[in-house]
Amino acid sequence: MSHLLIAYLAYFLAVASPGPSTLAILGTAMASGRRPALALASGVVSGSLIWAGLTALGMGALLLSLVQLIWLLKLAGGLYLMYLAWKSLRSASCPPPAAGRGQSPAAAYRRGLLLHLTNPKAILGWAATFALGLPEGAGGAEMAALFAGCAAIGICVNFGYAWGFSQGAVARTYLRARRWIERSLAAVFAAAGLHLILSRG
């Protein structure tokens, strides 16, 4: 049981810490409102669960051993982050959208899903989580508990960010500092994208 608690804590810290997916949820919540933010969070969670399932089936280790595939994944993820940086930068130079004219939930979901599926760190994160939470000889019950617990943590954290940052007071703060926030998001996405594209390991 202590192994599971350690894995849950490690997973919580990984999910709650700032990263491209978290910042995308926050930015969408402030700019477009609750529905698109929750849809984007759903896409992120879906992508995470896909990687978790592949890791549980042993595919994570196989994927990590295919250096060329990981390189292509890093390139795709880096290019997608650069695209998000360009979108944020363009948004900063445009007037704010009219109320109710934010990103559609379907587009937001696809964005979240792509953001997580093209992130090779997600595979590494799940591999580490499974290593922490499943000692040698662990059975199916322990794996199910780890999977269910981490899924619940991911849903609570990502949906919590989407709900919290879509509140009226936060949205009003966003509107006052919109250009600065969008430019900051562009810089973070661009830096993360370049890091992925240029990283060799």
TrEMBL record:
Membrane topology, from the record: Multi-pass membrane protein
The record's subcellular location field reads:
Cell membrane
Q: Does the keyword Cell membrane apply?
A: yes
Q: Which domain of life is it from?
A: Bacteria
Name where it mostly resides: membrane
Q: Pfam families from the xrefs?
A: LysE (PF01810)
Q: Where are the transmembrane segments?
A: 49-73, 113-132, 144-164, 180-198
State the UniProt keywords alphabetically.
Cell membrane, Membrane, Transmembrane, Transmembrane helix
Q: Return the protein name.
A: LysE family translocator
Natural source organism: Thioclava kandeliae
